[in-house]
Every structure is written in C-alpha cells, then in structure tokens.
Write a structure and sequence with these properties.
- The protein is of the alpha/beta class.
- It is built from 27 helices and 21 strands.
- A hairpin with a 2-residue loop joins strand 2 (31-36) and strand 3.
- The longest helix is centred in the N-terminal third of the chain and has 29 residues, at 148-176.
- It is globular, with a radius of gyration of 26 Å.
- The chain starts with a strand and ends with a helix.
- It binds phosphoenolpyruvate and magnesium ion.
- Phosphoenolpyruvate binds at residues 404, 406, 445, 535, 556-559, 606-607.
Length: 672
C-alpha cells in the first residue's frame, strides 16, 4: 500500500518529529519505506529518515508491505497530519531568544581581533580562552578482531552501557534544565538503537572487523550523509551522531574521555560542541562558549540556553587559532567575540556583565526580606538542593530553609551504598550550612526509572508505577533504617525534618514513622518533624486523613502532574501538555491544602510549578504556605510574592479552578 502526504509540522522531519514517526512505525510488523525526492529511507530508522531532509510543506510517499500495512499507514498518516506532536512553542527550531542586553563590544567590524557569529544563548563573558577539540570520532585503534561472537557481545555490552549513561544524564538534566531539553538525550538513545546502524555494524563484525572499527565505520557513512544535507537544521544532527559514536567508542576502549576543564574559569572555544560536552562542565568554571561552526538551533545551543551559559555560534574558523589562555570578550547579546581586548574594551565588557547582574543583585539584595504580599499574607520561600554547597548558596540567596534535600545525590552513580557515617556527615553539612534555617531531608527516592547498581531489581514494565520511592525503602528496610539513623544523628547540626516520597496511603506513613521513632529512641534524639510528599493523586485525595499522621505536606507537582494527567514527566512530545496548571492538578492542590489546614498543618510545594510566574499567584491564592524552588529562582519568587496582593491571588485561584484546561488557566491568569 502507498499513500502520499504533505508534511505539515513546523520543522519537517527533524530529530524529534522524526523520532515520533519512527517510534510509531516500529509498533507495526510491516516493512515501512518513506520516499522523498529521489531518496528512500527505512521508516523505522531515525538516522535513515533524517537523511531524507524533509522540510515543512514537502510531499512524502509512504509505502508499507505486510499484514498490518493498512493500520500502519492509517496511523502514520494521522500522526503526520497532526504535526507529529510538535509543540509550536518548543525550542528546537526557534531562533535564539533575543534577550535585549547591553552590547559589550564596540570594536570596528574590520578589527582583525573581532569575529562575528550568532547569539545563541544570551549573556556576556570575559575570561581566558580554553581551546577544546571537536568531538571527532576517534580513530579506532588497530586491534586484532576476536571471533565475531565475542566482538558482537562487546558491541552489545557497549551499547547497553551507553544507554545506561544516557539515562542517567537525562534524569539529572530533567532537574537542571527541564524535560524537553533532557529529551535531547532520548534522540541519542534512538540513534543507539537504530536498526540500520546496528545491523551495519554487526555486518562488518561478521566480515571480521573488531567491534570498535565496525561501529565507527557504520557511523562514519551516516555522519557524512547527514552533515552534507542542505538543510542546516538537519545537518546539525551530525553532531548528535558523532556524540553518540564517541560515547560508544569510549566504552569500547577506543575513544577518549572528555578532558576536564582547567581549574579556573574559562571561555571555551571549540569547532562545534556536542550536547554531552555542553552539559559536562562544571558551571562554576564555564564562563561562556564560542564555536566556530554550529547554529542556534543545535541541541548544544538549546542546552546552553536552558543552563544559562552565554553562547556565540558560527564565529568562523579563525577563532580556533586564537591562543590558549588569551583573554576574550564574548558578547552573546551582539553575537561577537573579541580576542585580546585592550583595557578599555575589557572594562566595558565587565561593566556590561555588571549591568546584567544588577537586576539580579537588586532582587538578591531584597531577598533577605520576607515574602509578604501587599496585603500582609506571608509565604515562605525555600530552596531545593542536593548538596551542602548548594545549601550555602541557598542561604545567601535568601531561602528561608531547604524545602527539599534530594538525598539521591549520595546514592546514584556508585557501586555500593554510602555508609551511615558518610550520610550523617553529608546531612549534617547541609543542616549546618543553613545557619539555623530548617532543612527537609527527603528519604531516598529511587527505584524504577532510577535504578541502583547495588540494589538489583527485576525489570519493570512501568517503572514510574513500580517499586520506587517509599515503596522501595519499605521493601528494603535495612537501607531505610540506615538512612533514618544517619538523618537522626545529623539532626543536632541544625533544624532537621524528615520527608517520605511517593506516599499513597496511611499504612506506608505509619510503617515509616514507626521505624523513625525506633531509630530516634535508640539514638536518644528528640523526635523530628515528619512530612510526606503529596505527589500521588491518592495522597491528595486522602489529604484529610494523612494530615492527621504528619506535621506537614510538600506537594511534588512534577510527579503529581505526571500521575494526574497520565503523562510521563520526561516525555519529549507531551512536555508542553504535561502542565501543572491543569485544573485537575490545581483541584488536587486545593484539596491537599484544605485537608492540611483543617488539621492545623502546613503545605509546601517543591515541584517546578513553584518557579512558574503564572502559577505562583494561583498557588498562593490556593493557600500553599511554602514554595521551594531551585536556588537561583529564590530572589525572583520572593519578589513576585511581594508584588502581589493575596486578595487578587485568591480571585485568580478561584478562576483557575473553574477552568477546563491548562491553556484556559494560563489565558485567564494573564488576562487578569
Ligand atoms: C516532584 O515530584 O515534584 C518533586 C519535587 O520530586 P522529584 O522531582 O525529585 O521527583
Ligand atoms: Mg517526585
């Protein structure tokens, strides 16, 4: 069967819509081919589909052969017509946000020290250059191939390990940058699993190549094919292919690990940057990035914007010969880079950086003030942290405490669990860093999608609905007991509260509290305040009875949204629809607040919703008592609260509860 279709979505078959197409195609048995112009691609291979360079408005021809061909074509036709779930507001095709900012460089355009590129992530940076090499596929070392079965097993193991690494990066990035940015690494997983790529590599192994050479050869051809496409957006995906190639080669012992940055702040200059490189560097040492090639729609650029790293792309090859360590001014407001600025140019740039920081400083200066609305209603603003260093920053940023200490940071990425002593020291360091402000230590929230190497668990079909959070802790009581003992022993260092994640009913809370009471009694430490995360709809619906069992609630709006709307919180194509302002989620927030307040308990909210400027007045109007946000957002959230009236917030909240969709809530909230 054959159908012809016009591709309607905004960016054509670029990475994420193509991934959507491929994922759907793979649910059918039949063979699916996609034709465009003179080329034909395997509809189940992302890499193959990308090389068609299908733009918006292009006609494609879908051909399917097999028992379920009619269903396949009907489903694919509908998906293509609906735009392959491409949200209109997503960043990939959008130009760099043109944040008006001070232009730091005024050197004449023909100044040989000046190079003009494209502003891809706003900001200004001054510092020494660090030249970074591009992620070239490393030449596979000359090794004698083992028997094909052995080489096949090596490749399979490396692909599995690469998938594990990408999963971890993705999980971390969801918190640092957001779900749709983290989904960039889903495209990388898709490349790893691409049937054409893997079978090309396996064919070469059969012919006697070692695994590394076979993988590199399979990738090389595709990288070249994608890089030479005349569509810049698609050609940029060659960097993603190379990035994936590098990762697997490294795991096969044939590539190089990324060299660390120098131990002082630098401006990176590179031919082009891969997504893995962009997120690999310590934010404190990375002032800005300039690339010779690349565009503002690359995945690296999307990540830089999400992480707040100033970036100029497409500055031309000359920048690659600028000397290591030479000073550079990078002006990502103007899209320029200036090597070896004179004293005036340098101080002008530094003044621009200072001006950019001024607004933030003004907010920060006021952030020590309480967040009290114009009509006298107080809301606490706390911070979400994962280390003592972040807790120190939180205190400086005006946080009134830590509303969520994610203890996973101690448990992930290691071969054995942290000892009780190590945990106690880590929690005590966070508590001590807060100078008397409270810290809510959330017990381990792993399992399912965040597996631990030392806690092997049977694979689960639906990890988000599996043995995770408090369920896992109660199933492995020795781990929970040890963690509770560490928290209790750390408690004299500050004002420590305990919080249990993923609670669905009272029996779980009672079991966990009983263990905590035993541990506290053994340690002869006074009882700690205990709260639970309200992130499962069941807990919100039972808030009145749960409130009698605990001292406080903290609403996890990220998970509460996911479970209420049945939309995976990290799903690339659902990201724009998985909106915590959905009235169903807001009604659960309302119910939680009512249940808690009736029992004289307080309610915080520690999900991403608390940093959304549209959501904050609604949450305040719903009666949420505390908002816990990422450290950099603390001063701004406090400033928003100080600028609003509680009476108005209550009107907005009532209006939002009466809406039918999240879009309607957003519309009504801004139309005031
Ligand atoms: C949440 O679910 O909103 C939350 C804060 O917890 P986490 O993001 O760690 O799951
Ligand atoms: Mg959660």
């Amino acid at each position: 069967m054959v159908v012809e279709l016009v591709v309607q979505n905004r960016t054509g078959l670029h990475a994420r819509p193509a991934r959507e197409f491929v994922n759907l195609a793979r649910t059918f048995q039949c063979d699916i081919r996609v034709q465009h112009a003179a080329k034909t691609a395997n509809g189940k291979s992302l890499v193959s589909l990308l090389t068609l360079a299908v733009k918006r408005g292009s006609t494609i021809r879908l051909e399917a052969h097999g028992a379920d061909e009619a269903e396949a074509l009907a489903a694919l036709t509908a998906a293509v017509r609906e735009g392959l779930s491409e949200g209109t507001g997503e960043g990939e095709a959008a130009a760099a946000p043109a944040e008006a900012g001070p232009v730091a460089i005024s050197a004449p355009v023909d100044d040989p020290r000046l190079r003009r590129g494209v502003a891809a992530s706003p900001g200004v940076a001054v510092g020494p250059i660090h030249q970074l090499r591009a992620p070239q596929p490393a030449a596979a070392p000359v090794v004698v191939a083992g028997p094909p079965a052995e080489e096949r097993a090596r490749l399979t193991a490396a692909l599995t390990a690469a998938r594990g690494e990408l999963g971890e990066i993705r999980n971390r990035l969801v918190h640092r940058a957001g779900a749709s940015e983290a989904a960039i690494f889903d495209v990388h997983v898709e490349i790893l699993e691409d049937p054409e790529l893997v079978s090309a590599a396996l064919d070469r192994i059969e012919q006697g190549d070692p695994a590394a050479r076979a993988w590199q050869a399979a990738l090389d051809g595709r990288v070249a094919a994608v890089a030479t496409l005349d569509d810049a957006l698609l050609a940029a995906r060659a960097v993603d292919l190379t990035d994936v190639a590098q990762r697997v080669l490294r795991l096969l012992g044939a590539g190089k690990a990324l060299a660390p940055l120098p131990d002082h702040p630098v401006v990176i200059v590179a031919p082009e940057l891969s997504p893995s490189q962009t997120i690999a560097f310590d934010a404190g040492r990375l002032l800005g990035i300039c690339t010779a090639a690349g565009g503002p729609t690359s995945h690296a650029a999307i990540l830089a914007r999400a992480l707040g790293i100033p970036l100029v792309v497409g500055a031309g090859p000359d920048v690659l010969s600028w000397p290591e360590g030479a000073a550079v001014v990078l002006d990502a407001a103007a899209g320029t880079v200036l090597c070896e600025p004179d004293a005036t140019e340098r101080s002008r740039a530094e003044a621009a950086i200072a001006a950019c920081a001024e607004r933030r400083r003004a907010e920060a200066a006021e952030s020590g003030l309480p967040a009290i609305t114009t009509d006298g209603h107080r809301v606490e603003v706390a911070a979400n942290v994962a280390s003592a260093a972040e807790a120190r920053q939180a205190a400086v940023a005006g946080a009134e405490g830590v509303g969520l200490l994610r203890t996973e940071f101690l448990f992930l990425d290691r071969a054995a669990p942290p000892s009780e002593d190590e945990q106690r020291a880590a929690y005590a360091a966070v508590a001590a860093a807060l100078g008397g402000r409270p810290v809510i230590v959330r017990t381990l929230d792993v399992g399912g999608d965040k597996p631990l190497a030392y806690l092997p668990m049977p694979p689960e079909a639906n990890p988000f609905l599996g043995v995770r959070g408090l369920r896992l802790s109660l199933a492995r009581p020795e781990l929970l007991r040890e963690q509770l003992r560490a928290i209790v022993l750390a408690s004299p260092a500050g004002k420590v509260r305990v919080m249990f994640p993923m609670v669905a009913d009272v029996s779980e809370v009672r079991a966990a509290r009983a263990m905590l009471a035993e541990v506290a009694a053994e340690a002869k430490v006074p009882p700690l305040e205990v709260g639970i995360m309200v992130e499962v709809p069941a807990a919100a619906l039972l808030a009145d009875s749960l409130a009698r069992e605990v001292d406080f609630f903290s609403i996890g709006s990220n998970d509460l949204t996911q479970y209420t709307l049945a939309m995976d919180r990290g799903h690339a194509t659902l990201a724009t629809r998985a909106d915590g302002l959905h009235p169903a989620v807001l009604r659960l927030v309302e119910r939680t607040v009512q249940g808690a307040h009736a029992a004289g308990k307080w309610v915080g909210l520690c999900g991403e919703l608390a940093t959304d400027p549209v959501a904050v007045p609604i949450l305040v109007g719903l009666g949420v008592d505390e908002l816990s946000v990422n450290v950099p957002a603390v001063p701004a959230v406090k400033a928003w609260i100080r600028a609003m009236s509680y009476e108005r917030a209550r009107v907005l909240a009532a209006r939002a509860l009466a809406c039918a969709t999240a879009a309607e809530v957003r519309e009504k909230a801004v139309s005031r």
